[in-house]
Amino acid sequence: MLYTATIGADEPSRIGFIVSKGVGNAVARNLVKRRLREAGAVSLREYGTGFAIVVRALPASATASWQELLADYNAALEVTMKRLGGRHPKSAALRSNGTTQEGTQRA
User: Fold this and answer.
1) 91, 92, 95, 97 alpha-carbon torsion, rounded to 10°
2) 2-94 belongs to which CATH class?
């Protein structure tokens, strides 16, 4: 599972990982975390600023190959970015009409 939210347009993107004991023993969890960190590092080349990304590893990630894990990560990231409107925070700020992303009035 992957969650994405926009943060300040000038702030560097942040990536967090949740790998519970349900994924496996410490060795399996650390392998999954290392692989997810690498996938995150690759995605930071495109989304280097303005995003907070949280990845929650599911138990199946322990048995997935690197290619499967990377493909799943990229697909989930693409879906969440489309849900955000496919816009970088800078371009969203330029189109702002006095409301927040949720559509509520700014204070």
Assistant:
1) -160
2) alpha beta
